[in-house]
Amino acid sequence: MNWKKSRLLFRQALDLIPGGVNSPVRAFKAVGGNPLFIEQAKGSKIYDVDGNEYIDYILSWGPMILGHSHPSVLKALHSAIDKGTSFGAPTPLEVELARRVIDVYPSCEKIRMVNSGTEATLSAIRVARGFTGRDKIVKFEGCYHGHADGLLVKAGSGATTFGVPDSPGVPKSYAKDTLTVPFNDIKAFKSLLRREGKSIACVILEPVVGNIGCVLPKEGFLDALRQETRRYGIVLIFDEVMTGFRVAYGGAQAYYGIRPDMTCLGKVIGGGMPVGAYGGRRDIMSLVAPEGPVYQAGTLSGNPVAMTAGIETLKILAKEETYKKLEKTMRSLEKGLRDAARRAGVRTRFYRAGTMFCTYFTETEVVDYATAKTADTNRFARFFTGMLTRGINIAPSQFEAGFISLSHSEKDIEKTVRAAYEAFKEC
Ligand SMILES: *Cc1c(COP(=O)(O)O)cnc(C)c1O
Known about the structure:
Elements lengths: L3 H13 L21 E5 L2 E4 L4 E4 L14 H12 L9 H13 L5 E5 L2 H16 L3 E5 L17 H4 L10 H4 L2 E4 L4 H11 L3 E6 L15 H11 L3 E5 L11 H6 L5 E4 L10 E5 L1 H4 L18 H14 L2 H25 L4 E5 L2 E5 L8 H4 L4 H12 L3 E2 L8 E2 L6 H16 L2
Parallel strand pairs: 3-13, 5-6, 5-7, 7-8, 8-9
Antiparallel strand pairs: 1-2, 2-3, 4-10, 9-10, 11-12, 12-14
Helix pairs in contact: 2-11, 3-11, 7-8, 12-15, 14-15
The structure holds pyridoxal-5'-phosphate.
């Protein structure tokens, strides 16, 4: 495989952009090598500037659940753009997307659109603080909720990949209000609430932790969070930016049958455009300006082009057969990857929730940040390179989830599994 143009572009980018990229994990730093510069993508495939083709399991880090350049989405986008790209005034599209989300997420009685997952979580926390009149928040080690100051404490995603879960630049005074507990540790959680419960505004979590790979909640864990937060009058926030419409149509909350007080969404609901959203109980959301005093705004929020991509995506997701097909494809991939690792004699742990998944290079059962970190990242790096050179694009970090789309075919899966067997043998 020839990566000449990508190499040249990366050299130029390094001079102009910190680390040569506009989001850290894109840089391949954890696996070595040079990031691919992308020319275009269609369906399950992505193409770099050197003309190489890859089957894509990054899918823009989650949003492209239909596959790239889906014809219905593109068609809708073209006609939306012809009407103008931003008005700074309400449009019917915002009402439609809000209704489509609320219909599927009963925990959201009202919803506010923003431009990213980061904005969704930081706004939801502000509202929770306004609602409770308390300052402290609880997050779980390894959960990533975007890059707002108070959330870069024991954070996942790039923060885990590069070993800086607590970022410099976050004032101690912010960080001190963020309390952390290990994921899946009900005992630690209960004991924290016994000490601090009355001063905690909210508990925020990824109900399935996708930003340290794919960590599933143990049976009873989410239930316990629901009960305990209710007892102390704490707002329970599910950050479903990744899991929303991904783990299941109704997200992790539908899959596990838990109703949080607030929900954050992003990624899939923007269909590849910059969209985030936060919603929740009517009494909580009515505090948001201009209905209430908690301020939150956005020049481009509810952007008509972005709303259009979201609406078209959700329309297709609403079809009965969509998640059946996704599940079928995911099952073949799961079986294929598990078999390939076994046949190659590599001990791994495979986890998945709906169509997000992770293969950890460890023998330890992964239940939280500490156990995820037992993974052998050098082996992962060799696996990554083995996959990339065979035309399979997976996230360049052990601590990121993989995704499939509606466009991934059985043929794609077969090719991927063959490549995985060879790549496993090399590590
Ligand atoms: C991606 C992600 C975010 C941040 O969203 P951005 O759009 O990148 O700001 C927040 N929470 C979770 C769970 C995510 O996966």
